[in-house]
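Researcher: Next sequence.
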Amino acid sequence: MGHSKSNKRSGNPKGSTPRTGMGRDIAAVVVMAAALVLGLALLTFSVHDAPLVARGLPAGSNLVGPVGHRLATDFYRVLGFAALVVPVGLGLFGWKLFRCATRRRSCSG
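Model: Next structure:
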C-alpha cells in the first residue's frame, strides 16, 4: 500500500517498447489513398455515364468505375464544385500525418 512517488509512469513504463509511429503511417497511407481515389472519381466524373451505371454497366469515363461514379455523384450533389476541395484537404491531412511522425515534435510549418 505504500507506493512511492518514483513509481509513477514517466512516458515509457518498464518492459514496454517505445512507440514507432507505425499506426500513424498506416493512417496516413489510408487517408492519402482515399484522397487519390476521391480525386480521380471527382475529376473524371461525367453526367453521361449515369444511364450506363443505372443498367449495371461500368462507367465509361470514370477511372474509379461505378463506385467512383456514385461517390462523385453524391459529393457533387451535396457540396457542388466545392467537393473538389475535399481530396485536396484529405491529401494535406495525410501529408501532415507523414511529416509529424512523433507527437513531441512540433508540426507547425
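Model: Residues 36-102 form one domain. The two ends are 48 Å apart (CA to CA).
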